[in-house]
Design a protein that fits this description.
- A two-stranded parallel ribbon has the order 1-2.
- The longest helix is centred in the last third of the chain and has 19 residues, at 64-82.
- It has 2 domains: 1-44, no CATH class; 48-82, no CATH class.
- The protein has 84 residues and is mostly helical.
- The protein has 3 helices and 2 strands, in the order E-H-E-H-H.
Length: 84
């Protein structure tokens, strides 16, 4: 989804308007590599287990200090989901 109406990518000027990528699959390159550009992938989850798996992958990728924080955030997020 292009966030700036009327703008299109321009290779010659090296311009790329901001985009949202809705529900990318795990196999898509946008979720496999670091993003350097105006792209925001938004992924939805159907189960708590899917959320846990993704948070574990992020924690492993980011390293031990980030993993501790990721577990805290995951625990808070899952607690909030369970109350709804």
């Amino acid at each position: 989804m292009n966030l700036v109406e009327g703008q299109t990518p321009d290779r010659a000027l090296r311009k790329f308007p901001p985009h949202i990528v809705l529900d990318p699959t795990d196999e898509m390159e946008i979720l496999q590599r670091e993003i350097f550009g105006p792209l925001l992938p938004i992924k939805t989850y159907r189960t708590k287990e899917e959320i846990r798996e993704t948070l574990m992958q992020v924690a492993i990728y980011a390293g031990v200090p980030a993993a501790v924080d990721s577990f805290r955030v995951a625990k808070e997020a899952l607690a909030e989901i369970e109350t709804k």
